[in-house]
Structures are given as structure tokens and as C-alpha cells.
Design goal:
Layout: E1 3-7, H1 12-23, E2 27-31, H2 41-48, E3 53-56, H3 65-68, H4 70-91, E4 94-100, H5 123-138, E5 142-147, E6 150-151, H6 158-168, E7 172-175, E8 179-180, E9 183-184, H7 185-197, E10 203-206, E11 213-214, H8 215-225, E12 233-236, H9 256-260, H10 269-279, H11 284-287
Parallel strand pairs: 1-2, 1-3, 3-4, 4-5, 5-10, 6-9, 7-12
Antiparallel strand pairs: 8-11
Helix pairs in contact: 1-7, 2-4, 4-5
Bound molecules: NADP nicotinamide-adenine-dinucleotide phosphate.
NADP nicotinamide-adenine-dinucleotide phosphate binds at residues 7-8, 10-14, 33, 36-39, 57-61, 76, 80, 98, 100, 128, 147-150, 155.
Length: 289
């Protein structure tokens, strides 16, 4: 049993992570932004003291805003991560740093391995990559868990948006030229817990669901699950949705590290979506909250 601290605990992942740790009987403390601003080294040192494991789920996640406010994003995603690293070194805590598929170029054709070279194409990706480097350089007793396409009960996400649009609109256009792995925050939280519980080798893990799909196919699946005709989802191209930050065309991550650690590979994204639908109450997959 460990004493955990979850930073960014008010966020979509942070809330489910805290719930999963508590349900597993772990001693977990949570710090949302109001409790702990990770851009302050002093505050990080004080907050981390007395905890065996820290999960840094705090981040600047505004991918488009980061294009024009990279310094601010860097202060959270890179300097903030470095502050957490320093604090963990001082207190002797182990660290789980949550990272992203955006550290890769997104132009591959086969899944990215854990050791694939980083080549971020966006400001957000650069700041998250810098956070990874801070962890790798100064905190060998750490796990970096890269995730992608997250959805969960808390916070805005694609599943909730599609469930709402299925009710509000006759048709919805969704891009079919970006491929990735929709990942449920509860599955990611359980995976993080298992890494620490089995004392898996420190290093990089890909915390995404198995299988892969496009946003278009994912939207169709959400329509189907909410009792709507998936033919109302129309395929379109990324060019039709010009956004400040480039989106990776191929964000499929490999899962070999789990197997090397003797842990099961993540379940398929469709199975996870089905499970999420059965436990969310009332289900955002039904009422589009
Ligand atoms: N969502 C995805 O699809 C996705 C994909 C890949 C990787 N990730 C990674 O997964 C992790 C969790 O993301 P999420 O989806 O849960 O994002 P989220 O809902 O935006 O949660 C991030 C939390 O961090 C807080 N925060 C921002 N600046 C902070 C600071 N200076 N100090 C402390 N807390 C601060 C935010 O507070 P406010 O909301 O009040 O600003 C928010 O509660 C992040 O590392 C993210 O990079 C997410």
C-alpha cells in the first residue's frame, strides 16, 4: 500500500484516477490547481513531502491555445514537470508522469514504440516532450505514461460531444484521416495503479487502448451505442477543420512495454467504450451531458 498524491486532480483524468486509487484501498491525496500550482517549486516540494508515489496529471491541455501561448504552456508542462521531479527527488517519491501521443510526429504507418524518437509538430507537443526530458534526465525512478484520445465522465471530451450532437443535429461531419486509440480515463487510471502495485520496471509505457480507429469510425460507434443511426455521421477531411495546431494523422502507440513488465496489454477500445457506457450513471452516452 502506498501513499499517493495526484496533481491536476480536478481534471478529467485526475478525478477518475483519485476515484480508482481510493476504490482500490490506496491512501490517496488529491491536489487540484487551487491546492497546488505546479509552476511553483516551493509549493511542489511542500505538497509532495510524505508521499510514496506522485502522479502528475496536471497539464496545460489547450492544444490550440498553446500555439500562441507556448511560454505559458511550457511553464506548466515542462517547468511544472521539472518542479515535480525536484520535489520527488527531495522526498524520495516515485513519479508517474502523464504524457501524450503529441510528442511524436504522427506521420508513421506502424505503431510508435516506446523508444521511438520524439518529433513534436505542435507547441503543446513540444512542451510535453520537454516535460518528458526533465523526468528522464533527473528522475530515473519514474514511469512516463503516454496517453491519447482520452474520454471520461468528467470534463469535455469527444464521446460527450458526439452523444450531444446525435440529439441536436441531423448530420455530423467527422474527420476520417486521423487514426488513434480512444482511451477511457478509468482504464488508464487502473493501468497506472497496476504499474506501481507490481513495481514494474521504470521507463516509458503507452497508456492507450488496443486497436485503433479514426474519429469518424469512433463517432459512428458512439451514435450506434446511443441508439442513433451511424449513417448520420459523415466522413470529412482534416483540411475542412483548419485549426491553429496541427493534428497527428497517425497516433497509434505500441504496447510492448506492458508485456515486458508481465502486465496485460490494454483492452480493445470498443470493449472499453462498452464498459464505460455501462458504468456511467446517468450515462453521458445516453443523455449527452
Ligand atoms: N485529454 C486527452 O485527450 C489527452 C491526450 C493525451 C495526453 N493527455 C494528458 O493527460 C493528462 C491529463 O489530461 P486531462 O485530459 O485530464 O486534462 P485536463 O482535464 O485539462 O486536466 C488537467 C488539469 O491540470 C490543471 N492545471 C493546469 N495548470 C496547472 C498548474 N499550473 N498546476 C496544477 N494544475 C494545473 C487543470 O486545471 P484547470 O482546468 O483549472 O486549468 C486541470 O484540472 C495531461 O498530462 C495531458 O497532457 C490528455
Amino acid at each position: 500500500m502506498s501513499r499517493w498524491l495526484v496533481t491536476g486532480a480536478g481534471g478529467m483524468l485526475g478525478q477518475d484516477l483519485y476515484a480508482v486509487l481510493s476504490a482500490a484501498g490506496e491512501t490517496a491525496a488529491r491536489a487540484s490547481l487551487a491546492d497546488l500550482d505546479i509552476t511553483s517549486l516551493e509549493a511542489c516540494v511542500a505538497a509532495v513531502e510524505g508521499h510514496d508515489v506522485v502522479v502528475n496529471a496536471a497539464a496545460w491541455t489547450g492544444v490550440d491555445d498553446a500555439e500562441t501561448q507556448e511560454a505559458q504552456a511550457f511553464s506548466v508542462n515542462a517547468t511544472g514537470a521539472a518542479n515535480i521531479v525536484r520535489a520527488c527527488k527531495i522526498s524520495g517519491s516515485r513519479l508517474v508522469q502523464v504524457s501524450t501521443d503529441y510528442v511524436f510526429a504522427g506521420d508513421a504507418t506502424t505503431p510508435y514504440g516506446e523508444d521511438a524518437p520524439l518529433a513534436p509538430r505542435s507547441a503543446y507537443g513540444r512542451t510535453k516532450a520537454a516535460g518528458e526530458w526533465a523526468v528522464r534526465a533527473h528522475c530515473p525512478e519514474s514511469w512516463i505514461v503516454r496517453t491519447a484520445w482520452l474520454y471520461g465522465e468528467y470534463g469535455p471530451n469527444f464521446v460527450k460531444t458526439m452523444a450531444r450532437l446525435a440529439v441536436e443535429r441531423e448530420t455530423v461531419s467527422v474527420v476520417d484521416d486521423q487514426r488513434g486509440q480512444p482511451t477511457w480515463t478509468v482504464d488508464l487510471s487502473a493501468a497506472i495503479l497496476s504499474l506501481v502495485q507490481v513495481q514494474a520496471p521504470f521507463g516509458i509505457y503507452h497508456g492507450t487502448a488496443s486497436g485503433d480507429t479514426t474519429w469518424f469510425e469512433f463517432a459512428q460507434e458512439i451514435f450506434r451505442r446511443t441508439g442513433h443511426d451511424p449513417a448520420r455521421v459523415r466522413p470529412t477531411k482534416s483540411q475542412a477543420f483548419e485549426r491553429p495546431a496541427p493534428r497527428p494523422a497517425y497516433s497509434v502507440l505500441g504496447h510492448d512495454a506492458w508485456e515486458r513488465a508481465g502486465l496485460p496489454r490494454p483492452r480493445d477500445w470498443r470493449d472499453a467504450l462498452q464498459r464505460a457506457q455501462s458504468v456511467w450513471s446517468p450515462s453521458p452516452l445516453q443523455n449527452g451531458r
